[in-house]
Specification:
Order of helices and strands: EEEEEHHHHHHEHHHEHHEEEEEEHHH
Number of helices: 14
Shape: globular
Strand content: 5-15%
Radius of gyration: 25 Å
Largest sheet: 3 strands, antiparallel
Strand order of the largest sheet: 1-2-5
Helix content: 40-55%
Number of strands: 13
Distance between the termini: 57 Å
């Protein structure tokens, strides 16, 4: 069964495997490429097998030919099985994750349970009692993570695996200022712990590039990532000062490493990821500066993503010193890294440094976002949803 090759408009390649007519899987047909679009002309009861390579395997491939050969092998293996075999294997693979958790919020509304979801949403907005809708929403979140994050693959991004075109919303990348974190909040508490793995792999892949960014931009040790990243290790400030200059993306990523340890008590895992936590904390320990009025240690220059405030002349600004957003993240990172080092019995001097600097840092509720802490004016365009979700 020889795969057929098709190319899209930007030169990327994919393998389309077609079995001989009459097999269980395919009913014949052909795949053509015309005017920048791929089209399949398939007979009734035909199926299309598409193999794509992503994640660590793609990043380590020697080039297009290596990727082409690997995707051809994957397509050929799939095409050697019947449609029913593929469907059954898919269902079994999915259910081994999904069936781990059941959530019932009673008493159930049997009538509502038989309605389509849009009708249930409309009824709930009108005040209908439907606790099962909340349980369904919980399971929908698990479905998204199961479908978008698998071992050895890429992490769930802002788009998930469902995209209508090549240019997806937000470039289908990872925003580190709450978005990718929200994708993975269900991982441990919803019994999908191993699906956290792709995010851990992403964090590890950012350490080397982040060390170069820390040296080049800040003259600091350790590693840093800002707001946006991608599979190619982007760690620099990005796009706009109103949010892209935020330095604490890497600090928030490290919360997921620590949370996995707290949920699993896997000391070997902690031993593997401790250098990532230490490197991140090392950067911020170097990066902090003394705020002149109160002698606090604060991040500067800093930015609370998508927040703005008024300057004395009435103009709007975004760059500040010691935003609450940063302070919460660094309190957590310094405490977690200190506890991790203590658990592993390493870096006693670094533990003392982090504890001392944590004690000198901006206290919760104080603001230095462009004005004195006792100025009661509210910031403009405040994304309070972000700060409310940071664990400190």
């Amino acid at each position: 069964m020889a795969p057929e090759l098709s190319a899209n408009s930007d030169g990327a390649t994919s393998h389309i495997a077609r079995a001989a007519p009459g097999t269980d899987l395919y009913g014949g047909g052909r795949f053509v490429f015309s005017k920048g679009q791929a089209r399949a002309a398939l007979a009734a009861a035909a199926a299309l097998v598409l193999a794509a390579l992503c994640g660590a395997a793609a990043a380590q491939a020697d080039g297009p030919r290596d990727l082409l050969a690997a995707s051809a092998r994957d397509a050929a293996r799939a095409a050697s099985k019947s449609y029913r075999e593929l469907l059954d294997a898919h269902a079994a693979d999915y259910r081994r994750y999904f069936d781990r958790v059941r959530l019932r919020l009673g008493p159930a509304n049997e009538a509502a349970g038989g309605l389509p979801t849009p009708a249930r949403l409309k009824a709930a907005a009108g005040g209908a009692h439907d606790p099962g809708l909340a349980a369904l929403y919980f399971q929908f979140g698990r479905y998204l993570l199961i479908s978008s994050s698998r071992p050895a693959g890429l992490p769930a991004n802002l788009q998930g695996i469902w995209a209508e075109g090549v240019q997806a919303p937000w470039n289908a990348d990872w925003h580190l200022n709450v978005n990718v974190q929200m994708n993975y909040w269900p991982a441990e508490v919803a019994n999908l712990s191993e699906l956290h793995g792709p995010l851990f792999a992403l964090v590890g892949s950012l350490q080397g590039p982040g060390e170069r960014t820390a040296r080049a931009y800040y003259g600091a040790r350790g590693w840093v990532a800002h707001v946006i990243t991608n599979p190619w290790g982007y760690t620099s400030p990005g796009e706009g000062a109103s949010w892209g200059s935020t330095t604490t993306g890497s600090a928030w990523l490290c919360q997921h490493l620590w949370e996995h340890y707290l949920c699993t008590r896997d000391r070997e895992f902690l031993r593997r990821v401790y250098p990532l936590m230490k490197g991140s904390a090392r950067f911020y320990a170097d990066f902090l500066v003394e705020e002149p009025a109160h002698k606090w240690l604060v991040t500067a220059p800093a930015n609370s993503p998508e927040n703005a405030f008024r300057l004395p002349d009435g103009s709007t600004a975004h760059v500040c010193m010691g935003p609450t957003y940063d302070m919460q993240l660094l309190r957590h990172l310094f405490a977690a890294t200190t506890e991790a080092a203590r658990t592993l019995g390493v870096d006693a001097e670094f533990q003392r440094e982090l504890s001392e600097k944590r004690a000198r840092r901006l206290r919760a509720g104080h603001r230095l976002e462009g004005r004195e802490a006792d100025d009661g004016r509210a910031p403009l365009e405040a994304r309070r949803d972000v700060q409310a979700r940071i664990r400190s």
